[in-house]
Give the backbone structure.
Amino acid sequence: MNLFFERDLRLSRRQLFGKAASGLSVVALAAMLQEEAAGQDKTLGIPGLPGVPHFAPKAKRVVVLWQGGAPSQVDLFDYKPGLEAHRLEDLPDSIRRTSRLSTMTSGQREFPVLPAIRPFRQYGESGMWLSELLPHIGSIADDVCLVKSMHTEAVNHAPGVTFFLTGSQIPGRPSFGAWAAYGLGSVSSELPAFVVMTSADREKTCGQLFYDYYWGSGFLPSKYQGVRFRGEGDPVLYLTDPPGMSRELKRELLDDIGELDRQRFADFGDPEIETRVAQYEMAFKMQTSVPELLDISKEPTSVLEMYGADVHRNGSYARNCLIARRLLERGVRFVQLMHAGWDQHLNLSTQLAIQCQDTDQPSAALVKDLKQRGLLDDTIVLWAGEFGRTVFVQGDVTRPNGHGRDHFGACYSLWVAGGGFKGGLSYGETDDFCYGVAKDPVHVHDMQATLMNQLGIDHKRLTYKYQGRDFRLTDVAGEVVAGIIK
């Protein structure tokens, strides 16, 4: 959908006829009247756009399980038994020269092939091949769509994450969650449409940072940005009132501030004023809804055990997965869990297993939990990182904590469950050396387009005009991957 500037769409009649009697303003008025005629539910946290979704959606909500640092597809997802015959042989030049490398290994003189460090086995009725390091994800294999032919242009972390989550390697674009909130709005009036939580491996082996623009609203109004829940202290900054501030006094204060803001908005029509009013009101409601949300004491023991012992530790990946389920069932549209720890350049032989122990069980538990509650069918669960890892060794393979794998974007794997994606499917193939896509390539923009399609959104029509151009999540590319959806 091509829209005029947000400010023009939000103009009141008084602003419109009193300040801007132009052809553009008449169009803006028509859009505003169309929204009123649609009778949108004003009790929603954020109303969606008129005409969105564009068609019947398969999914209503999304949870992204972001594995920051880039999990190794060679060791976890892309079964290549033939690599054993080439163990520690130099990767042929004819293969290696076809793909872009980071500066950390582009100057290596030797590129010895390292097969998967742990055996693979088949899981589920589908017989999906996964590493034995992922037994819990293996237990949901028949619900998982494993895409092994992903590829991206990025070879460094921040550009790679930014590209997947915003559609551009350069910061400044709206994130996927912001686009979803903008187009579809929020189901809940007590919680934000878009919530983010972060975690990291206990050893803090991954030095990558999580930047706010990974869940930012870019040039969209800031009310669509993700709200971060912290694992320590107040879950949301400034949510707790200062000493001496009663609930009643806070309500009176917000009413007075809101009246001043509404008068300001009547004069200028700036959507950021509306955002400020909405955020004050949401924060007031969250003072009640968030403590209840984060209190897991009433969860059945069986559910807590399903997520693993780490669920009892504030800020852990397991705890965040459980909170994600509680957010989704309370109407939050988009939940994004950002977990660091997969950047295993020199500690692959030790840290990969630890990272899998921390994330395998909670990831699978979230899928099972949603399925048991009847929510998986219309919830997309996406497990992904920014790219993959090289099949050749980085560092000294004779040292247990002195070797690993470098960044690699030419081929990697991710999985998605629920939301109309085909379960028990392994889609796409890489070449014999896991160094390039051999069949059914899926670009980052293709995956973005497919995810939006399942939400009932035509990725080419959900646009926002900024600096004279209509922008969208998929930029100027992307095709829906029909082979992975029902």
User: Anything to note?
Assistant: The chain has a mean pLDDT of 88. The longest helix spans residues 348-372. The CA atoms of residues 303 and 423 lie 23 Å apart.
